[in-house]
Amino acid sequence: MARIDGRANDQLRPIEIIPNFNRFAEGSCLIRCGNTQVLCCASVEERTPPHVPEGEGWVTAEYSMLPRANRERSKRDISKLKLSPRSAEIQRLVGRSLRACVDMTKLGERTITVDCDVLQGDGGTRTASVTGGYVALALALKKIGAEDALKTSVAAVSAGIVEEQPMLDLCYEEDSCAQVDLNCVMTAEGELVEIQGTGEGRSFTIAEQRELVDLCAKGIEALRTIQKQVLEG
Amino acid sequence: MARIDGRANDQLRPIEIIPNFNRFAEGSCLIRCGNTQVLCCASVEERTPPHVPEGEGWVTAEYSMLPRANRERSKRDISKLKLSPRSAEIQRLVGRSLRACVDMTKLGERTITVDCDVLQGDGGTRTASVTGGYVALALALKKIGAEDALKTSVAAVSAGIVEEQPMLDLCYEEDSCAQVDLNCVMTAEGELVEIQGTGEGRSFTIAEQRELVDLCAKGIEALRTIQKQVLEG
Amino acid sequence: MARIDGRANDQLRPIEIIPNFNRFAEGSCLIRCGNTQVLCCASVEERTPPHVPEGEGWVTAEYSMLPRANRERSKRDISKLKLSPRSAEIQRLVGRSLRACVDMTKLGERTITVDCDVLQGDGGTRTASVTGGYVALALALKKIGAEDALKTSVAAVSAGIVEEQPMLDLCYEEDSCAQVDLNCVMTAEGELVEIQGTGEGRSFTIAEQRELVDLCAKGIEALRTIQKQVLEG
Amino acid sequence: MARIDGRANDQLRPIEIIPNFNRFAEGSCLIRCGNTQVLCCASVEERTPPHVPEGEGWVTAEYSMLPRANRERSKRDISKLKLSPRSAEIQRLVGRSLRACVDMTKLGERTITVDCDVLQGDGGTRTASVTGGYVALALALKKIGAEDALKTSVAAVSAGIVEEQPMLDLCYEEDSCAQVDLNCVMTAEGELVEIQGTGEGRSFTIAEQRELVDLCAKGIEALRTIQKQVLEG
Amino acid sequence: MARIDGRANDQLRPIEIIPNFNRFAEGSCLIRCGNTQVLCCASVEERTPPHVPEGEGWVTAEYSMLPRANRERSKRDISKLKLSPRSAEIQRLVGRSLRACVDMTKLGERTITVDCDVLQGDGGTRTASVTGGYVALALALKKIGAEDALKTSVAAVSAGIVEEQPMLDLCYEEDSCAQVDLNCVMTAEGELVEIQGTGEGRSFTIAEQRELVDLCAKGIEALRTIQKQVLEG
Amino acid sequence: MARIDGRANDQLRPIEIIPNFNRFAEGSCLIRCGNTQVLCCASVEERTPPHVPEGEGWVTAEYSMLPRANRERSKRDISKLKLSPRSAEIQRLVGRSLRACVDMTKLGERTITVDCDVLQGDGGTRTASVTGGYVALALALKKIGAEDALKTSVAAVSAGIVEEQPMLDLCYEEDSCAQVDLNCVMTAEGELVEIQGTGEGRSFTIAEQRELVDLCAKGIEALRTIQKQVLEG
Questions:
Q1: Burial class of B85 by CB neighbour count within 10 A (0 to 12, 13 to 18, 19+)
Q2: What is the pTM of this model?
Q3: Which residue, among F68, F77, F110, F129, would best test binding to E if mutated, counting the most E CBs under 10 Å from its CB?
Q4: CB–CB contact D83 C82 (8 Å)
Q5: Which candidate, C22, E32, E213, F122, has a CA 20 to 30 Å from the CA of F128?
């Protein structure tokens, strides 16, 4: 079975990361993974929320889709007076992932909020938010002279089983008919920070789960190279 | 007194309108007015709200700023559970302006929602939303084969008095110290659809008000030319 | 064409302002403009919101309609959990207008909130709120011995084009079929503080806009006389 | 001990009921009990909520205080995004009381909503809302030709123990230092529809409770006479 | 007429109070009154809300039903974004009742919040919340060594008129067809703290009201004995 | 290193499942895993949400913690007007897990809502909600004669790395200092439905991830035996 866009099963979609897309944020980028586009902006504030120990910093994330990011327009959260539960889930994931990169003591008493706003969504918006969010975060830390607070990098990608075939980096068409969907967030050292897998159409064996993690690991290595180029460029 | 960016007092900032920026919306554009950037997406739905007479259509607008559109990050509406009153005011203005272009009977029983999301705000976001929103609307009408529902075009710009001098198209630095701020929405025929003026630092004479309207009229003519080029291009 | 209530085109409806209608507010009045009735109460608090510079005061307004102020009952904001966007727009206008009268340094570190609650609405509620709100504000400043903080007065009225004729101070029936609706807020010196005009049924020329402003200026002069009588009485 | 306003312990405050205060509501009145002023408007709609059996009608009430109804300004419900729990409690009481007067089958498939908005509160606003709400309801039923749906009338008053003395119709000063506060809603036949009593400063004996009910019964008889005069006048 | 569960008209349902049902709360119990089950948890915090005078404490209550506490599932408050008005009314009653037991000066600057969560509701949940809430409160005061702040005890029960017969402690079936429903909260001394009575199907005489209070008084005496056993056991 | 409660590293806490704990729900149980207690109630409604294809059914879940489920009291969602993001995330997980057991066509046009309310939380509340939620769901399907809609069973447990040792079924003390936390939902066939792993204190290798999944698989087998006993008993 050929993939809808002709990719090999272990191949990422074309990735583009435009750094400093927003001129006001301390760090920002527009990340494109195929037709998925997420604007990631890291904002630094010189105070921390109450739960943070004195002398330490905090990193958090917010995630949202613009109303017409998808094939059909969806209502804004504010018109329903509810944060979309899916957004709530995703922004918790992105926040945990980005915190894994930062030494909070070296950051000092600051909060960095990474806003991930999906301009166009074609599958993989949560993993693009982690990958692009890391770039925004790293640029912001450089801008404020706190690069040493960066312990490692993170990047993320999904893999899934579509028509019984394991595939890397599902686009919307693939995602919407995937039997299994799994995504991983990994560090520069190739270790896991987050793993989330779901049997959408059927359950999956432990062996299948392992194969999907291996696919993700491969994709993340490629993403890491692109992140480095952007940050060093 | 020279303007901060060297423009003449009756000169617009550089304008760029990128049509079809979003691949899913029936019509869309990214409009740049200097450093202000607004993504305008027109979405068509085949139903109308209850207050619309049978056989007619409806055009409405929503306006929002991304959290880091400004120099300082602001909280999302949903985290305050309130639509920003400023956004409420602006989206009512944009909606009225766009409705002025459309023959609702020719549109038929459809709703077109024009989402104006400010990616970067440097003054003039409400007028950019009208100018770009018109382009998105016109593209959507073309896409669905309802160009004949378009009665006229609209474009908008602001003018103000800064250090006692009338100036066209204020950027943020000018806007934040303006004594008077006025914006106009005008049709292709050079008639007014909306006028809103505010004395921020002082009141203003009827003569001053007239001068500002004349400045706006001049700027809107230039904007109309750009809109036409984009739509015909 | 004769007006529905027999007025001349440049004639105000009967105006009545009952000062001190509420016994608890520092300043208050009930303003009647024809069948429109707005209760305006100015409340003084000895603290200011965070955005106000130290040593200065603040003036703000809130606007709301009682559920049966209109021909049809409308739901309360709280049962929809949303401030009506129209109310949001109007209370911003009233607040800006009243702030134009006050020297914030002379007011000192106090907030004056002017609540404008429409008991009955028959057109012109926003302009009645400005005109009555000024009276409530002036009475409150007198009560707390801060009359010197008052720089000028403000009053407001609307004008519109109905069946191609420019008319002053539209009542509901006129307003609901107006082609153009414009309102002005002006100071004691006859200068503009706010101008808002909308083409409801059609666009309007700059010449028409000027004519409507001139009509408003005439009406506001009459309103100013009534305000003075009430405040001096 | 003399009462603050010189009344006898079993004496009501001066009562005034101005019928048809609002020109749009099907029935309305402004009720004044001493310095307490409540605007009661009854609105008729030709549909019923889902829980109402077919062929029957529904009567409901809403209660709210204007921000400056009291000695200190309070925030609007909408700015806290919560219906005041006290208002919730009171509007349930008023609704139940008014429903006790109406034969829902004779009313037919209509909803009557009685809005009780407190313009000025000086104690006894919930009982004034019942007493005035009944007048608004009766006027509305007359207006729509459904007087026969009225089974009885209701009126309400409070009594309390202040400095160990039972007193009728507490004003704010008395209410705020009452040891016991009890209110009754009674029909034209002198039967109870609602009774609510609270020991604020101390508990109270069954004998005291009986004495307060007897005081209320006396006051309600006087209120009923005023209601009749207004409705027959 | 025999009662649905064979009880005498002046007989309580079987009562069970399991103390310390929750291991984290300073005081807690599960109270069962027939098929009604309420989990009452008293939580102590070392601070007070702003309205409490310095040096004094505060006692408050919250009441909620689990979605499937009743015969039909009801939506959670959070999915409607509104505290149920009925819950608002009940938690105010429970809070007032429990405050009647406590000497706030002896409590000191602490807040005790008593959460009453209905696991299963079969009539009488508000009175069970008072009776069980008192036990949770007393246990919490003992745990923090503040027993001397307890001035008295409270317990509560309902009585009603069903098919013209006065009955004690209505279960759901009785409650839903009761003509009159009345509940009392009383102290250890047999004095009233709260009384609330409603004519659901018809109004009721003062004599009937007295008979229902007497029934309640009898039931509360029995409840008080059970409370003592639990607290002393 | 010994575990805080003396368990072996691959040993579950004592599990108890009391079926039919709530008499109104079509299916219900109270599940206890050590000191964690969750009340699971399955409610059947004869209609489905709009997104469900005709002829099919739907299964969904809601999750909430009582305010004093934890060591410290937390505010109710409704008093913050926000569904806790953690609850939003968990109820999505529980819903997906339970849907994996049900053949929606055989269920027919019904919605089953499984409410998981945490009475006491000591770690593992989300996995207890899945395990207990399945029992409530299965009981409800039996009650309505739709057992054949059950395709498989699900149960869930967590495992984590604490002080560098992999451990099964973390209690609160272990969970709050875990370096890695991972939970699995598995079917009767031992296949995965959900996997979620997070590096809290450090990242983790793919090998560690595999070991934790194996631990979970072992625990889930034991849970499945208990579920069967309860459902067959």
A1: middle
A2: 0.96
A3: F68
A4: no
A5: E32
